[in-house]
Every structure is written in structure tokens, then in C-alpha cells.
Amino acid sequence: LRGLADQETEDAYRRAIEESPEFAPAYAHLGRFLRRKGRASDSAAAFDTAIRKALYPASMILVAQALQSDQRFADSVKLLKKVLSQDANNPAALILLGRGFTSVGAYTDAEVVLRKASMITVGGVSGWSGLAELYLRVGKPDAAEDALLKAARFADGSDRFELARLFAAVGDAFLKTGGQVAAERAFRKARELNPELAADA
Description:
12 helices, mainly alpha
């Protein structure tokens, strides 16, 4: 987290593995570290081990998070499907799977999963914001705005800053299609959620 990518960091990950050889997330974090150091083959081997050793939903989710942070979305999708085969309503897995589907271009699947996530979680902020990002990606700013308005009813704390960013992106999308009035509406909502971010809009 402090950006210290040195031998001491690698040694700490490897010691964690020695202490608990079946703890899958340790291999995933080592894989991410090795990729950042340019050791692609070693990184791939560590991630493969992480995937193989992730046997329970909690560890699978942690490994999937590491995979997504390393842009390995297709691998994360496979793992998250396993989670949902054991726990069909796991909200964290649904949201991560929605992001994974979005990143690999499986937009229809992403929409189904994220809608489910938004319905089964309290407030559904992460699910609705994930849907908004999906709709922005496929050029549907009206649908993105609608999803964000649903999320905004329950947002607090850091959620408000993320939603403000997305409302500003919706405003930009409206401007590109000539929707000046809709853009101003989205920017006003962004200002309401985070005045500092919206000041640039």
C-alpha cells in the first residue's frame, strides 16, 4: 500500500505462504507483486496456484479481487461463477462478477448480475453504480442516470464521492450527444454529492 516493492515485500508474502500454504489469497497477492516487478511467468504461476487453492467462497472472492486488480478479469469470472454455484446470492461475488463481465464485454450477463446484486443488498449502491458504469460503456447515459439516482437514495460517506464522479461522467456523455439540459441536470447532482469534483464540470 505504501508502494514499497522490494525484496522485503516479496519475502513477507513468501513467509505468509510458508506459514499457511493453503491460504490462497497470499499466492494471489504474491502474483500481483511479481507482475509489477516484471516477472510475468512467476506471477502467472502464483496466480494459478491461488486459483487452485481457493476452495471456499470467502477465499475465492479475495483471490478474484486480486485478479481484477491485476486486470485478469476473465480468470476472475471463472472463479466467481464457482462462488455463486455454492452461494447464489453472495452480494460481493455478484458485484465482482458484474464488473468482470463488463470488463470482458459480456454486457448482457453483466446487467443481469448487477441488477440481482442491487436487489438483494441493502440500498444496492454498488450494484446500481456498477450498472451505471455498464450503461456508460455501452452509450446509454439515460439508463446510467436512472441507475445512479436509485443508488443516490442510499449513498453515504465515500459512496457519495464515487457517485458524484459517475454523475459527472453521465453529464459528459449527455454533452457528447447534444443533451445540454440533461447534462446540466447530471452535473447539478454531481455538485450536490461532491462540490469539489463537480466544480470542474
